């Protein structure tokens, strides 16, 4: 069974809006590229899928936009070519190497996890909350930003039950960001 990993940037006060933390730098983009490369496929909700597509889909010209720094291109290439699953009841279709996921979320994600491979990557805010509530997330990776945002959506706001986690890895960046990797502890009967 391939693990489902939830990864997101989060400020010290829990804000997970994509513009609330530090701007991406070369070190963080290398980290995110490696995270994406550890996954066989990406799992997004509609909002995250559309946001990522608008920023990281390679233009039809084959030339990356001028705003993109050279050190962002490996990330862009990795996410652009990745297989994507999009959970949405409102989209009628997707492309960008993507497939719609419909029906019962728990059953659909369980089927994806049953496929052979290294893992699935999920990002965003709403979909990961639903997956955490269903007990389907096998690993949580937070890039904790040394910022107090004071606003915005907060990490896993509305979680129905407490999830106990154990720290399995920690990496500090020069910027002061700390990447922390946790796995849920499984209660034994």
Automatic annotation (TrEMBL):
SUPFAM superfamilies, per the entry: Dihydrofolate reductase-like
Gene3D superfamilies referenced in this protein's UniProt entry, alphabetically: Dihydrofolate Reductase, subunit A (3.40.430.10)
UniProt domain Bacterial bifunctional deaminase-reductase C-terminal: residue ranges: 6-177
Record-linked InterPro entries: DHFR-like_dom_sf (IPR024072), RibDG_C (IPR002734), Riboflavin_Biosynth_HTPR (IPR050765)
Lineage top rank: taxon: Bacteria
Protein name: Dihydrofolate reductase family protein
Organism name: Occultella gossypii
Organism phylogeny: Bacteria, Bacillati, Actinomycetota, Actinomycetes, Micrococcales
């Amino acid at each position: 069974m391939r693990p489902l990993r939830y990864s997101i940037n989060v400020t010290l006060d829990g804000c997970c809006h994509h513009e609330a933390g530090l701007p991406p730098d070369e070190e963080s983009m290398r980290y995110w590229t490696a995270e994406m490369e550890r996954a066989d496929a990406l799992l997004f909700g509609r909002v995250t899928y559309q946001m990522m597509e608008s920023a990281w889909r390679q233009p039809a010209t084959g030339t990356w936009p001028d705003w993109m720094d050279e050190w962002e291109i490996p990330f862009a290439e990795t996410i652009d070519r990745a297989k994507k699953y999009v959970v949405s009841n409102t989209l009628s279709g997707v492309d960008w190497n993507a497939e719609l996921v419909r029906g019962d979320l728990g059953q659909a994600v369980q089927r994806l996890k049953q496929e052979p491979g290294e893992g699935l990557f999920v990002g965003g805010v709403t979909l990961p909350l639903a997956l955490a509530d269903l007990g389907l997330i096998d690993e949580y990776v937070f890039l904790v930003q040394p910022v107090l945002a004071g606003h915005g959506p907060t990490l896993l706001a509305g979680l129905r039950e407490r999830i106990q986690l154990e720290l399995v890895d920690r990496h500090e960046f020069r910027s002061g960001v700390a990447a922390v990797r946790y796995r849920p502890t499984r209660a034994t009967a």
